[in-house]
Amino acid sequence: MTRSSTTTSTRTGGGRALAARQDRPGGGTNSGGGVRPARRLIAVLVALLSVFAVSVAAPAVADQRAGSPATTVTAPASVEGSPAQAAPLKAAPLKGDPSIWPKPAIVQTNLTAAESQQRVEDCPLYHLCVRNQEADGLWSAYALYYCLPAGQYYELTNFTGTVYAQNSQDVAVRLLRADNSQVDSIGALTGKNVNWNPVWKIDLC
Predict the structure, then answer these.
(1) Cα–Cα distance measured from residue 70 to residue 148, given in angstroms and rounded to the nearest whole number
(2) 128-160 pLDDT, tens per residue?
(3) d(CA 135, CA 172)
(4) Given the DSSP bridges, would you call strands 182-186 and 154-157 parallel, antiparallel or unpaired?
(5) How many CA atoms, within 13 angstroms, populate the side-chain half-sphere of residue 189?
(6) Which of 8-22, 48-62, 98-112 has the lowest mean pLDDT?
(7) Is the pLDDT of residue 170 over 50?
């Protein structure tokens, strides 16, 4: 009898324990493990949606900023066409005073046009006489006499225009370019109008 009562009480206690486990609400130990993963999943989805929304909105904002007037830089039309931006007009260079090197035997400056012409026409014997206009409008006249060593020539500066020259030597005079090639000549004991523009040197004798 003692064994059966003990057995009954034991079974009865086990049944109570089983009933207690079956009567526990869904929020017990087993249900708590399912709620937490669900909340985590919802949080992850919300975060992903937020990132997607930001990534979609960012290009639109960037495009809007790129097209905004504040970021568009255009040069004013008035700057390009302004007279202040135009290249300044350069004045024509003034003609310098004529000169000959080595220095001729006779040099006369600050002459009138008539005086210089008379000096050339009255060129002394065995001389070459030339003239040219100075920067101030007056004239200079030169009489060349001394022959230079072979390969050396009288060099002209600021000789321009067509002007009469007189050769009173008994030999012809060669008029040379910058590269020593001959551009013109003046025969012995004669005179002529010379275009001095291309003439850089004189081979006197």
Answers:
(1) 77
(2) 999 999 999 999 999 999 999 999 999 999 999
(3) 30
(4) unpaired
(5) 1
(6) 8-22
(7) yes
Q: Tell me which residue has tokens 């072979």.
A: 150
Give the strands of the sheet with 190-195, arranged side by side.
106-111, 139-144, 128-133, 162-167, 190-195
pLDDT band at 188 (very low <50, low <70, confident <90, very high): very high
pTM of the model: 0.56
Residues near 193 by beta carbon (within 8 Å), at least 6 away in sequence: 162, 163, 164, 165
What is the Cβ-side half-sphere exposure of residue 128, based on CA atoms within 13 angstroms? 24
Q: Sign of the CA dihedral 43, 47, 49, 50?
A: positive
Q: How far apart are alpha carbons 193 and 87 in whole angstroms?
A: 40
Half-sphere exposure of 34 (CA within 13 A, CB side): 6
Q: How many CB atoms lie within 10 A of CB 139?
A: 23
